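Obj.: predict assembly geometry.
Materials: sequence records (below).
Method: joint structure prediction, all chains together.
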Amino acid sequence: MDTIGVGLIGTGYMGKCHALAWTGVKAVFGDKPAVRRVALCEVEESLARRRADEFGFETSTSDWRSLVANPEVDVVSITTPNAWHAPMAVAALEAGKHVWCEKPMAPALADAERMAAAARVSGRVAILGYNYIQSPAIRYVAKLLERRAIGPVTHFRIEMDEDYMADAEAPFSWKSEKSAGYGALDDFAVHPTSLVSTLFGLPAEAFGEMRKPYPDRPDGASRRPVENFDVATVLLRMPNGASGAIQVSRCAWGRKGRLQLQIFGAKGAILFDQERFNEVSVYLAQGSAEDQGFRTVLMGPAHPPYERFIVAPGHQMGFNDLKIIEAHELLNRITGKPSLAIDFDTGLAIERVIHAAARSATDGRWVATA
Amino acid sequence: MDTIGVGLIGTGYMGKCHALAWTGVKAVFGDKPAVRRVALCEVEESLARRRADEFGFETSTSDWRSLVANPEVDVVSITTPNAWHAPMAVAALEAGKHVWCEKPMAPALADAERMAAAARVSGRVAILGYNYIQSPAIRYVAKLLERRAIGPVTHFRIEMDEDYMADAEAPFSWKSEKSAGYGALDDFAVHPTSLVSTLFGLPAEAFGEMRKPYPDRPDGASRRPVENFDVATVLLRMPNGASGAIQVSRCAWGRKGRLQLQIFGAKGAILFDQERFNEVSVYLAQGSAEDQGFRTVLMGPAHPPYERFIVAPGHQMGFNDLKIIEAHELLNRITGKPSLAIDFDTGLAIERVIHAAARSATDGRWVATA
Amino acid sequence: MDTIGVGLIGTGYMGKCHALAWTGVKAVFGDKPAVRRVALCEVEESLARRRADEFGFETSTSDWRSLVANPEVDVVSITTPNAWHAPMAVAALEAGKHVWCEKPMAPALADAERMAAAARVSGRVAILGYNYIQSPAIRYVAKLLERRAIGPVTHFRIEMDEDYMADAEAPFSWKSEKSAGYGALDDFAVHPTSLVSTLFGLPAEAFGEMRKPYPDRPDGASRRPVENFDVATVLLRMPNGASGAIQVSRCAWGRKGRLQLQIFGAKGAILFDQERFNEVSVYLAQGSAEDQGFRTVLMGPAHPPYERFIVAPGHQMGFNDLKIIEAHELLNRITGKPSLAIDFDTGLAIERVIHAAARSATDGRWVATA
Amino acid sequence: MDTIGVGLIGTGYMGKCHALAWTGVKAVFGDKPAVRRVALCEVEESLARRRADEFGFETSTSDWRSLVANPEVDVVSITTPNAWHAPMAVAALEAGKHVWCEKPMAPALADAERMAAAARVSGRVAILGYNYIQSPAIRYVAKLLERRAIGPVTHFRIEMDEDYMADAEAPFSWKSEKSAGYGALDDFAVHPTSLVSTLFGLPAEAFGEMRKPYPDRPDGASRRPVENFDVATVLLRMPNGASGAIQVSRCAWGRKGRLQLQIFGAKGAILFDQERFNEVSVYLAQGSAEDQGFRTVLMGPAHPPYERFIVAPGHQMGFNDLKIIEAHELLNRITGKPSLAIDFDTGLAIERVIHAAARSATDGRWVATA
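Observations (raw structure tokens):
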């Protein structure tokens, strides 16, 4: 296989990220096969054409089913709103395509299960766009844990906060409707849970709490009650006795893309924040007390795959680079090489945790996640 | 009253802090009445003598009851282990003394209730050593909240972590016995709760979770099961609909005196960490988006009572200075002036929250705190 | 013009950055004309072929003169060692090509002058790869200065430090030979000077000091004297009375890509560090003293051209993105649009400052820069 | 000697700091002899009385000569404006008293020389109030250097900045008169030079540059030219070939008590900033590249004399605590114990560096400091 044909559905926020990833991956990694940007789909024909031109795709369409059926397309990027993930992913897998689908899988657990089943049956590669696990920093954290640098993990805390819904007087939008999901829990908490899953394994039990910072929002001349929860907390119990907490908010003024990680082990601690994702802080309980402290390690060529992007240390990778790494890992998996990615089965397990937390929040008691 | 006579019981960690506070308070604040360091009590006679000399107390004793009975003593500092707080405080109050007692009040709720009752009956001033509420930084935070700078508070998170029990191989000590209390919950969480009480008011409901990072510890040649919990989390629901979380650990490698506060409101956010307690960060959702960010305010003469210590900004106050402020606030209260301090009634309410959280942790469900 | 043909000479550190920039620029900016990657040159034929495949160039060669002569090539990226810049740039310009040349222009001032003259004669666009001026952060700083947010600038300090030559026992290399230039002064100080030129204008006078942290380095079994200077300081006097300092070191252990900027004005201050180049800190002497502090602004869609890369704030841009912006600015200039870039004339002025500083260091007195 | 009698001249900014130091030193350090606060002098009789009461001094006077003559006084604290240091210190030494004098010694070098000569003749202890060298952090830095943790020092940079004169529209004051000295150079640069002297030894040559950010200031209805320099830079060459730079400004908006130190050695680097003086950052070029970074060490009981103030780590010392340490070191010296302090001879050497830098600034060339 000299080239691999790519189809892209959706060209919004994540759609552009996928487009840039497909554009850059070979130049960064020297990957084989080379990527052919075959087909792009947008809801509106003329927009599809414009984006295809901008993003360098050979053809465009407003009919996603035709893209999925296109025999030149080997792998389909799905970056549409969440409700579309299941039908598109299942159709693509049934058509024998590999799938790179944005997270979360689907608002309803049944749909996520259908997606995972379709992936299993298809024998194709099906992964989710959990980009945060791909950074050199998180890989370095994983390596530190594997090396047992901080001993066994005893406790962790993860916070993910943004402020895009923090304005109490922003008009009521579909994001606050019940049909949009639980709120911050499925919108955000899947990311921390992807880190938990990657770094520590899946939790055994969850306790959830969901809150409405603003009970209602302006809706024309009156106000409309908010139907889901902009703040959520999930306590986790791990099978091995460790414990953790995930706290998420989309009303956290000042937080723009925070995803803070605190990991405590029997011999040290690790800190990380996505808002400064080129840095990892490590505390090792070693040596003289007078010399101990958190060491801030700046990512560089010693932290793969940083060196594929820049050969000099301290030059910083960007968010879009993470998507390039994801595309590379997907190609690795397709070509049978070792690969780091969250596939549909693991993605399903992550969503089970989320649904368990939501159930727990309703019931006010601990709930098993499996 | 030209002078006020002070008696100090205990000269360990907090005992020395009280001694330094009594020594320095007049020179810092120019307070009237002047402090007379009358009597000091330690368990061992010769140590008591030595400390009295060092700390400038006129007399020493190994009999705390005689100190409490001393007619020259107007106010008693109690800095002994927690189990001694109740008998000493009650005796001092019954002898007509004012009391400055280290927190928490007592391991058993019944004892704390007895202390609060004794204070009420006595008509004397009885306060607890919650020093963290006294810093210029926390006073500035309180002022920001009063000014509604960040609008109504919707959510807060407080973490208090140290690592003094983080070494898994440190020998089993009395700190890990059931009789020492719940563990991190009463050892640490009273501090965050004192901040909650001071800044936001008392919570209505609590959910607790307590964990053992290390199930056992070395005990001679074998290992002994740990009987209480070095990690705890408390979720809080406030009467007005706001929510919060308190997370504490005494096994958090690298954390030395961390007490981090995140406060989110409808119009902004405030951050604070006791490890850098001369700084407060404030985010205001005002002006152009391009100019918004967290503003780190360094404490200075504009933040009382900093200016009593140093007239130039940016010169940093220390932990011991907080105890001097506490002593000053106690003198204010005794002399009928406005005063910021946590008295025994509020202290009792704080401990009710702690006990409710512990009960919740056992029962696995939300518990009312009052 | 529907497409523009690009030739790339050199595929090392900066060569790959150029390749990635040419690959991604259209997908990021939707630029017209589209970029055609026509020809790539490397010293060794087979490496040239491999890189052309990886980077998506249509043809490869080991003869840079043939690349420069290629009629399909409209613009030439020059990323070879500094000594090659002058012959290649001059040849390209004489062949009617636009030029994007890495900085600095040339070790010898006469060569830089020849390049600038060739550019002027050619009527073509000739810019230098000063990437640090292209970030949203530095553009935001420039905008703040234009808005007079901090009033007139009175004083600035810029430090640029790395540690790639900090190891005293690293073997003697060509970098330490006199023929390689002054050392840190031309290697690093051109970057700070590019910021000075962009933000404050050109200085009137310079005072230089150059130092050898290690007088000799291992060379086989013996040691060889170091011939140039790994540490340099340049004091600057601006025509309007403001003053500044540039400090550079390539032996600064722990510094990986530091480029710290402190700007003081009559009404405030601005801080920036390239190691965290998605952040700018601003202090405005406004409002109550109790509320003043440095505000850390995280780059986002409000800071162009961030929004072309990611639509959500706080997601971080990377170093390679800066090169994409540069390529975009070059295309803007070629197509006659407003553009931010350092052309050969400004580049020459920057190098005059460097040479003046070096002369000053030798003479031990202030030197005029023009 | 059971007690030592103290006289304090001046009760402003530094006067209160001395008073607090004398009040607290025994309780903190358990020092022998005990301090007797014998006499206090202020210009105005009634203020002297009030301060004596507040600060716990036995007697008060408005006649400094009588204080100096008082046979009960063994040591004299001099905290008056700089012009008074020389007559008071010389008189005190001639009267056989030990002296603790605030820095700098005197505006004129001749006066400083006179003070040093008087100290030498007297055989008494005479030290200067260079408090920044006394912190646990700076002592830890000194210890790291002694341990050769970062190898031999090759280069250092020190910045000291405040903003108390940053307001361009603040009225002209005596601080801007020529008679007040060079400006920032003698006002601030003595502190960095005290660190240089303590940590690296005295420099051999200096190059100075002094600047006026605001050429004039409001003076009633008109404006008056500023006569000295609010910004200064001093480049230093050390006898052993190392180099350094000192940069100071009293017009640096946003800087409140910044005193930043960067030390680069052949095997690592050390960072420190007085605005967070309970922290030291250390980079050691050891171990795997992937694990290297700056380690931020929080001061604690492992960093003497922190443990005399608080027994728990991470609790922060304050500025006033540094003065207590100074008083303790002075007592140590008086009682013949090892002691860290800058005596009049070293203080004189520091001022010679300052005067050399000023001369260099006038002459525009390097000047020898000795």
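Conclusions so far: Residues 344-363 of chain D form the longest helix (20 residues).
To do: check interface contacts against the pulldown list.
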